[in-house]
Design brief:
759 residues; alpha/beta; Uridine Diphospho-n-acetylenolpyruvylglucosamine Reductase, domain 3; 8-stranded parallel β-barrel; 7-stranded antiparallel sheet; 30 strands; FAD-bd_PCMH_sub2; oxidoreductase
């Protein structure tokens, strides 16, 4: 008896007939309406009476919202694996992570050869499929920056660019019957997808044994391979054989297949809507209940908690992996998992955490937070992983990733109040709000996470028009160190609400923020390139022009030192927006001309577009690298002395990249004590990247220290204690210590510029 512990899946196996092209689509929609998990389609490209399966799956994905989609199984003998991988990733991205890869080597070789496929022997077909799996996984591994090379005999790629990464880790299920295919399934695949009507007595058990043996030889746990089964038969009034009888008979037989043969995916074959309805309504719920009850009684370990030999050796000291709650273990990623490379790093910082938790709701956040406090390792919270400081990853510790909580929900149309999950990115938010003509100032890059920016500050492209992101936060849900789920607003827990807006990472794990969006029409987005030979003069003129401009103009400047005899160059990025209306292009041109006068103009382009076209949706898969040192400070004005100090820092060569962001206008309308972010008179933020923290600190302290006026921690990697008082000047710091003592007295949240609790 074998139960591999996988969550049960139920689905349909539909014939892609083209006599009534919409018939398969209607059956797929019915499958979704009935609550089934999966809809699959035959794939016979040589069959003229069938729709093309790829085209059908794409159409069905667009006509459904929840159900997952797969070929059953796709014929890789007639398809180029690299193109299959890109098609699969594209469909997965477009459908929100709903594509699964059921694939086979192909078997009807006369028909395949007639269509132009190269005929292969059975052994060659298995080798070709193995090569295809390697290529598909290589294409999906977009975090790997090296070109993909697979010198296969039947399928080869030589320097192919990887990507796109799919929306989720697409499993590869093989339609396999013979021993070599079964061994390939155990060694390389994620699932076995045969059809029960093709089996003789004992074939299922023998197949499982072969797969298990191959998995263990490859250092894998047999439970890593899901067992799915296409089911023949019919639900009838009288019993006349296996899966030929009443629903009760089906429930009994499928329950035994789950508990004794490890089958966790049941896919009913046939195109009769009444049979599909009877399966979904009379069989599926009862099987789920029976299997769940037996698993509770037997103490069955979930498949996600069972590890192969290779994965076990990669585990880190100080983490009790076996005690991880099952609801978290199902989606957790640890060293040795295929998804590990996609979640270990952040945007610029390399990491090697011992475990990445991926909760899907506030209860799982609380469960994960309680569990991690029992571990003897470092702990980090990650919104989307874009932070410059790199504190959303670590080496050997635990990362609590909030990407599973990224919904964007309008709470109140009249006040434009929006509830946003902490794991959403601002690009996702901008795209969701654009159809309403709404926007929230939100940094200058769409891959930035809501939770990080929305609890720290929020200097962004609409900053002079709207202020900081935190200035528009009206409520938050936060999980505190003791496991409480608290609501904070101006009226409820106002002390916590005050602290969350500027120092939220010190107080708990924020799960969502409610923010009042602004009404913003199309904006003008301008990109200028200027000669920065006279760096100080350029900065002084640009700063004066920005401060004198209408509040609808927000501008950032990036300066890099000259190299190879070339002069320093400046990249100017400017957004001009209007409250409740489109930006006026004529007025924008006049304002941009003043900015262009700051230095010799080398190039310029501008366009009118929605805010979502500026802060665009970006891939959240980060590969680390670079590991830069960073410093950040606030500046009141870019006067002559300040501009010359920045020029000297650039000339020191200790910084290879500097950015100045405008942060005045509406930001300065807020009282310094209204939020934990107290810097309400400065007009600019300066950040600098370098390759050595000590040398950068020395140059920064010498040149910028005398002219800076406070710090913005999101862009700083210097961990010296004086940074805290620069970021939180008194009396803000003392007030934060008091709030910290109330909500995190044991300083659980201490990895991101920790504020010590008051005595």
């Amino acid at each position: 008896m074998t139960d591999y512990g996988h969550e049960l899946l139920f689905g349909t196996f539909i014939t892609p007939t083209n006599s009534d092209p919409q018939a398969p689509v209607r059956l797929a929609q019915l499958s979704e309406q009935l609550g089934l998990d999966l809809v699959t389609f035959q794939d016979h490209p040589y069959q003229p009476s069938f729709l093309d399966t790829w085209t059908l799956m794409s159409w069905v994905a667009a006509r459904t919202e929840r159900i997952h989609i797969s070929g059953n199984v796709l014929n890789l003998g007639m398809r180029q694996p690299a193109l299959v991988a890109r098609s699969a990733a594209s469909l997965d991205l477009l459908s929100g992570g709903r594509f699964e890869m059921g694939v086979g080597a192909g078997g009807f070789w006369d028909a395949m050869a007639a269509m132009g496929a190269t005929r292969r022997t059975p052994a060659e077909s298995v080798d070709a499929l193995e090569e295809g799996i390697e290529i598909m996984r290589g294409i999906w591994d977009a975090t790997n920056r090296t070109p993909l090379r697979v010198p296969g005999q039947f399928h080869r790629v030589d320097g192919a660019k990887r990507g796109p990464a799919p929306a989720h880790d697409i499993p590869i299920w093989l339609g396999a019957y013979k021993k070599r295919m079964l061994r390939l399934t155990g060694a390389k695949a994620d699932g076995w997808l045969p059809s029960l009507p093709y089996f003789k007595e004992g074939d299922l058990a023998r197949g499982n044994a072969t797969i298990d043996e191959a998995a263990e030889e490859a250092g894998r746990s047999p439970s890593e391979i899901r067992r799915l089964l296409n089911l023949g038969g019919a639900i009838t009034d009288r019993s006349s054989g296996q899966l030929q009888g009443p629903a009760d008979q089906w429930v009994e037989e499928l329950t035994l297949l789950a508990l004794e043969d490890g089958v966790s995916g049941f896919i009913v074959m046939g195109d009769d809507p009444d049979q599909i309805r009877a399966f979904a309504e009379d069989v599926v719920p009862a099987v789920r209940e029976a299997v769940a009850a037996e698993r509770r009684s037997a103490g069955t370990v979930p498949a996600s908690a069972r590890r192969g030999a290779v994965a076990l050796t990669a585990r880190r000291q100080g983490i009790d992996y076996d005690s991880l709650p099952p609801e978290l273990a199902a989606r957790a990623v640890e060293p040795g998992d295929r998804e590990y490379e996609a979640v270990r790093h952040n945007y610029l910082r390399s990491g090697a955490p011992g475990l990445v938790l991926r909760p899907q709701g506030v209860d799982e956040v609380a469960s994960g937070l309680a569990w991690v406090q029992k571990q003897g390792v470092e702990f980090a919270v990650r919104s989307a992983g874009h932070g410059i400081s790199g504190r959303s990853t670590n080496d050997g510790g635990v990362v609590l990733s909030m990407r599973g909580l990224r919904s964007v929900e309008v709470v109140d149309e009249a006040t434009r109040r929006v509830r946003i999950g902490a794991g959403a990115t601002w690009g996702e938010v901008a795209a969701a709000l654009a159809p309403r003509g709404w926007a929230i100032t939100s940094g200058d890059y769409g891959g930035v996470g809501v939770g990080g920016l929305g609890t720290t500050g929020g200097i962004g492209f609409l900053g002079r028009l709207q202020g900081l992101t935190i200035d528009h936060v009206v409520a938050a849900e936060v999980v505190t160190a003791d496991g409480r789920v608290l609501y904070a607003s101006r009226d409820e827990r106002p002390d916590l609400f005050w602290a969350l807006r500027g120092a939220g990472g010190n107080m708990g794990v924020v799960t969502w923020l409610e923010i009042e969006a602004g009404a913003v029409g199309d904006v003008v987005f301008s990109q200028m390139t200027l000669d920065a030979t006279d760096t100080a003069g350029l900065l002084e003129k640009w700063g004066a022009a920005v401060e004198a401009a209408p509040r609808g103009l927000t501008s950032n400047i990036i300066i890099a030192p000259g190299r190879g005899g070339q002069a320093p160059m400046a990249q100017l990025m400017t957004v001009i927006a209007a409250e409740g209306a489109d930006a006026d292009p004529d007025e924008a041109i006049a304002q941009l001309e003043l900015l262009a006068d700051a230095g010799p103009l080398l190039g310029h382009q501008a366009q009118l577009l929605p805010y979502s076209g500026v802060v665009r949706q970006e891939d959240a898969h980060h590969s680390g690298g670079g590991d830069p040192s960073a410093r950040s400070g606030l500046l009141t004005h870019l006067d002559r002395s300040t501009s010359r100090a920045i020029e000297r820092l650039l000339g020191s060569r200790e910084s290879y990249f500097m950015a100045v962001r405008a942060t005045g206008g509406a930001t300065n309308d807020v009282a310094p004590d209204a939020t934990a972010y107290a810097h309400r008179h400065q007009n600019f933020n300066l950040s600098a990247l370098g390759s050595n923290q000590d040398r950068l600190n020395g140059a920064w302290d010498a040149e910028i220290g005398p002219v800076m006026d406070g710090s913005y921690l999101s862009f700083d990697t210097d961990s010296r204690p004086e940074r805290l008082l620069e970021a939180f000047p008194e009396p803000t710091f003392a007030r934060l210590r008091t709030v910290k003592a109330a909500y995190d007295p044991t300083n659980v949240f201490r990895t991101n510029f920790p504020i010590p609790p008051a005595d």
